Amino acid sequence: MPKIKITIIESRCRGGYCKTNDVFIVEDLCPPLCHELWHSMYPFVYALQNGANLDYGNKKRPMFDMKCPDEGRVVIHAERIEEQS
Questions:
Q1: Which of 1, 7, 13, 78 lies at a C-alpha separation of 20 to 30 Å from 20?
Q2: 3-state secondary structure 14-72
Q3: What confidence tens digit (pLDDT) does each residue in 2-26 have?
Q4: Superkingdom of this entry's organism (predicted)?
């Protein structure tokens, strides 16, 4: 299954889970993120892991951006990492 790289672009996280420039690689387990943020992004992560390309600007790409449901306090960028042969 492809890996998904999640980068924290901006963080004002009240729970202290996310810091700006943190990077998480998702393989098969939830990374150490707050449940609200993970619950919001999981459908997109699952889609990328299963080969989907998502709307990204005017194109379909294997990535997405999202803001935390807690007033957008955390901004993430996620992208599928292609396997190296």
A1: 1
A2: CCCCCCCCCEEEECCCCCCCCHHHHHHHHHHHHHHHCCCCEEECCEEECEEEEECCCCC
A3: 999 999 999 999 988 899 999 999 9
A4: Bacteria
The phi, psi pair for 44, rounded to 5°, reads -75, -40
- Rounded to two decimals, what is the model's pTM? 0.90
Integer Cα distance of 21 and 11 in angstroms: 9
Residue-number span of the structural domain to which 22 is assigned? 3-81
For residues 11-27, one letter each, b for 16 or more C-beta atoms within 10 angstroms of the residue's C-beta and e for the rest, the string is: bebeeebbeeebebebe
